[in-house]
Automatic annotation (TrEMBL), chains A, B, C, D:
InterPro entries: L-rhamnose_isomerase (IPR050337), Rhamnose_iso-rel (IPR013457), Rhamnose_isomerase (IPR009308), Xyl_isomerase-like_sf (IPR036237). It is an enzyme of class 5 (isomerase). Keywords: Cytoplasm, Isomerase, Manganese, Metal-binding, Rhamnose metabolism. It comes from Microbacterium bandirmense. The keyword Repeat does not apply. This is L-rhamnose isomerase.
Amino acid sequence: MNTLTPDQLTALERQSIELPSWAFGNSGTRFKVYGTPGTPRDPFEKIADAAQVHKHTALAPTVALHIPWDMSDFGDLRKHAEDHGVTLGTINSNTFQDDDYKFGALTHEDAAIRQKAIDHHFECIDVMDATGSRDLKIWLAEGSNYPGQADMRGRQDRLNDSLQKIYARLGDDQRMVLEYKFFEPSFYHTDVPDWGTSYAQVASLGDKALVCLDTGHHAPGTNIEFIVMQLLRLGKLGSFDFNSRFYADDDLIVGAADPFQLFRILFEVIRGDGLNNPDVTFMLDQCHNVEDKIPGQIRSVLNVQEMTARALLVDRDALAAAQRSGDVLAANAVFMDAFYTDARPALAQWRESRGLPADPMAAYAASGYQQKIAADRVGGVQAGWGA
Amino acid sequence: MNTLTPDQLTALERQSIELPSWAFGNSGTRFKVYGTPGTPRDPFEKIADAAQVHKHTALAPTVALHIPWDMSDFGDLRKHAEDHGVTLGTINSNTFQDDDYKFGALTHEDAAIRQKAIDHHFECIDVMDATGSRDLKIWLAEGSNYPGQADMRGRQDRLNDSLQKIYARLGDDQRMVLEYKFFEPSFYHTDVPDWGTSYAQVASLGDKALVCLDTGHHAPGTNIEFIVMQLLRLGKLGSFDFNSRFYADDDLIVGAADPFQLFRILFEVIRGDGLNNPDVTFMLDQCHNVEDKIPGQIRSVLNVQEMTARALLVDRDALAAAQRSGDVLAANAVFMDAFYTDARPALAQWRESRGLPADPMAAYAASGYQQKIAADRVGGVQAGWGA
Amino acid sequence: MNTLTPDQLTALERQSIELPSWAFGNSGTRFKVYGTPGTPRDPFEKIADAAQVHKHTALAPTVALHIPWDMSDFGDLRKHAEDHGVTLGTINSNTFQDDDYKFGALTHEDAAIRQKAIDHHFECIDVMDATGSRDLKIWLAEGSNYPGQADMRGRQDRLNDSLQKIYARLGDDQRMVLEYKFFEPSFYHTDVPDWGTSYAQVASLGDKALVCLDTGHHAPGTNIEFIVMQLLRLGKLGSFDFNSRFYADDDLIVGAADPFQLFRILFEVIRGDGLNNPDVTFMLDQCHNVEDKIPGQIRSVLNVQEMTARALLVDRDALAAAQRSGDVLAANAVFMDAFYTDARPALAQWRESRGLPADPMAAYAASGYQQKIAADRVGGVQAGWGA
Amino acid sequence: MNTLTPDQLTALERQSIELPSWAFGNSGTRFKVYGTPGTPRDPFEKIADAAQVHKHTALAPTVALHIPWDMSDFGDLRKHAEDHGVTLGTINSNTFQDDDYKFGALTHEDAAIRQKAIDHHFECIDVMDATGSRDLKIWLAEGSNYPGQADMRGRQDRLNDSLQKIYARLGDDQRMVLEYKFFEPSFYHTDVPDWGTSYAQVASLGDKALVCLDTGHHAPGTNIEFIVMQLLRLGKLGSFDFNSRFYADDDLIVGAADPFQLFRILFEVIRGDGLNNPDVTFMLDQCHNVEDKIPGQIRSVLNVQEMTARALLVDRDALAAAQRSGDVLAANAVFMDAFYTDARPALAQWRESRGLPADPMAAYAASGYQQKIAADRVGGVQAGWGA
């Protein structure tokens, strides 16, 4: 069992995890954002950093962009990415940093502001055309802080209307994924707070609209793997935003807070034919507030890989037999046996067989890249969540 | 503002809250169930007790039954209810107390056990035919306690299959409401844990299948009024199970834990045309573990009435104006102004004008009913959650 | 019942709620800080704004400062405050915005950084000497984001050592209050996460060290009024930071999220002789992310006053009698009767009798102050959470 | 690293986990208690079952009793235990199943009921004298369901008074451990809801009173290992009740819900010199609602052992160095490296070297014991949480 089968290794070889460009910029809390030497100053430097993750792991061939943070000449950026061995991925819109959006964007009471937000998404679709991206990701940061402040019902209707207009603009091979979030930045209501709302909205739009599940966007105690199962069953899981959390939307390294939860999620992905399924994009969405960013991303993709390997190790025939017979302890034992198994040695060996470093973290540290960017990237403004 | 308008009083006069027969039996925690003198020994005594609530409040004309707990001659029971001034309401099925259902009922791996559970629902529909009830309520208590114990995906598919069979048996004027619950009695996964799952299931069945929202069945921090709004918007809110909670499914008196939340829920009911809407049944579902049961139910319906009155007092034109202008403090003030207003004096006066006691709690206490049942109901087995 | 007694009015007249200078500056989330016209540019303007709250409510005679945000000539600032009818209150230290404190301040592994943080508190005590402030408030923002990142035990010991040094510097009439917080800005462990830790730390220091309870700093579901009761019982409740929350440390207007919880807290304050007790400071700590700041503060102090009035209305003799007799419904009814009572009309009348506006929100809006500061405060840098 | 050192094996060999006699009886939820063939009918059969766990694992040499559930001739029971290779351990009192205790026991308003509860604890101390037990464990199930129902402050004072009387009765070598619990069976307030309250209470009693930490008794998101660290630091961690949970006090198999949390807890135990420390008792407290009881207990003690082994594998020198240098990713990597390591092969080998089965679960299943008790234990009343 400790050895991964050829089929399992093939599945792992096909695994692809999209990186968020913004993970390489500075981030923090409302209290403080710490800067670090070598932080990128523009989208090109972010892409270069992201390419380091792929170089050492072969797990991260695409990079998601955030508009307007990554506005640039997308022909140049696309070529720059390809030169670095990666491609451009999902385009993320931003409707939470313009003064006009203080009380909503796609849901705003004022039709002019709604149109401005819709136009922003049209612009994002133009970017997709230029970058060759398939997916438009909408995280709806809208909501209210006080009971009575907003008409939740009217906003939901307006949201549907706005989404229909954006949906209509999508190309034949393009998709929209709608992310839900329990709370923050709004503290009373969020317009898309749960998977049910995202599902109801996208189901009304059509086949090209799907749900984006961010693993940090749920109420305490939520069984996330159940939602993964349900969305796969309903054919509406468009993408993951992986990260981890102890409390709120902490945006920690994937698997850092609860590796067993990550294992359970990946098991349901496999169970529901979501692994290496082109319809289900794996992405990271994280904030490296106190740790180094490039190795932080390497650690995240390795954690996803490790838990995917362990989830593949579940003896599904034995599991099904134990489940059928109502043998609770036997079924749990089959499941835990895989989770308890250390796949790292087998993965390290296999990595080397593919010309990759056995230990990507060590390889990156030894590469001198961090020192080089710290020395080279002097002056300019470090990238962060501002425009 | 302190005075309720004639229209508001008419809305309040039409308000109807269904009582659960089981609230009059003993209930408790896994640690202890306390009995009390006068507890009913059979469905007829439960109905008699429930009728006391209606007698003093005019708010609770119907009583929900639980099968098999309330199995009896339903012709007799129906007449008994009518003799006491109430009618029989929703029929609740039970798939959580038979040894066969230890690992599932409508979702069970074994087709024979699924059929047994389906047959139980057919029996419930037969009861509905006998009692004249419209609604079949299914609380799905099924799930698992350990990761790996159950195949969540397979269970979801089997659930849908079972529900389709039950749905097909419904009469033209009958409905099914599917209740969701975050956790308990299962502690890892629940087969219908959230409104999204209930919605996806009933949406696939047809117009006669709707969602039942129990106010105690959510993850900590969930914005319940948002779900009320959404289900009303989607045309799928079939019924409420009202109660309140500080922690889990505490099943406390309605409004006891957070009266402002109850107010917000009722405001969204009004906003979404759910008040006195025959499609949206108001029910209680509670456990009076430490307090007297009949006055506990009286307190609950009065709390619903009080918060309905306050929610009706919201100046919706002023609210809409403040919302449109983005005046957060003004909108919140309009909302809070209604919540802060004490509707009790106006309601007491109005009650008297209708020949009802100004203070139903005092009237019940003074009636001597409690002393009478304590004296009369000697011997027999007090009703509880056992068969 | 609807009328406040002379004793109750006297208690209300003595009520004093300290305002945080930083509530008048801009604040927001990690995603966006919205600015508004008229926002203060320096501590003097913050004091002027705070004085408006007191002018219209007579509830807020003192203003807390935050160091270094409010560094200035404290002789001048003190006189400026007095000229505006208020005085300077609690001094708040800041160990969360200096690059040196990325991995801790009073708990840091490096003795030099600990000393720097201790010295900052010495400086705060110097400020207290200059301002005549009694209390030094320490919110310990320290912690870690990842398991293994920090040695929690060693940090706890170092924290105690650092606090002892600061404690030793306090004057005879000065106090230290240590605030605890469940999480944020750290996402795995916080060095003072709960009241127990704060209590154990301050109990080891001496009588001049007490606990500060921020109502937004607890785990979901925590019974905060129990902690209030316990700390009063142990003689260690030094101060409150009032605000409200639905999810995390949302820092909303006091009483906005759960007015009944605020009522319960204030009832325990009264029960434990904490009302108008000079040992127990009432403070606000809030962020007005989307609402106007000055009226936001007015709303908060009015909410505290309203719920204090309602809590004073509890018939404690009747309550005690019901509690003694085990009459759950009667005890709860006595309690809820007070909460359900609208004290606003009586308070408005009483306010007018004291020469205050019946409706402070309306009076402020009519005063033209907001328009004046919006017009006058042009140029400069709006105050916020930066230095 | 994959090999446990002799020192580590010695530490593991000394590990001792006390079993709760009640885990072998039936338990369930308020909805249903499922019985299973072979369930013990009396304390003697419970002891025999518990001895099976020790026989196959050498990890569980003592069995805790619950009074009055396990009332018997304790001379006989003690000898019976010794004949089965185990000894009697902690005595657990019960103040939650007598009708008199509906509104409190040690905290009750009525001095006569308080005295009855105190007398029950005197009786438990008598049992301790007869069984040779050192520890008296008090889980305080008391509290209230509704705001206003109880005078929390008065109850806290009466609790202290009652505990002092019990404490005074303890022998020189006896101890009291006071367990805290967030909620249940009370749903508004619990008289000892958190570690701070338990600590404040026992600290006022003396050195023989300590805190009992049940891993399932915290608010959502609580960092339990922090509390372990703090109580060890304060010298007040008397015992653990191990189990696991996803939602509330689910009482699942230890480590089943979050193995990484168990690892972190055991790391802090080691860090704070709590492992194999006679002052810190390791106990289980669980409910095997749906799984077989004896193998359920075997699984639990094996999970504790596995995570203890992994926690021992943490390279503490490397960890300290990384922590000192502020290298977040390196420190986390050292920590995770141990958690990711599979200690099962090494433990299996070592078990065999001590004459124990490599796979205790398989050995128990093969032993035929379960079939034997199912066949033998016919008639009588299966033990559960009733008397």
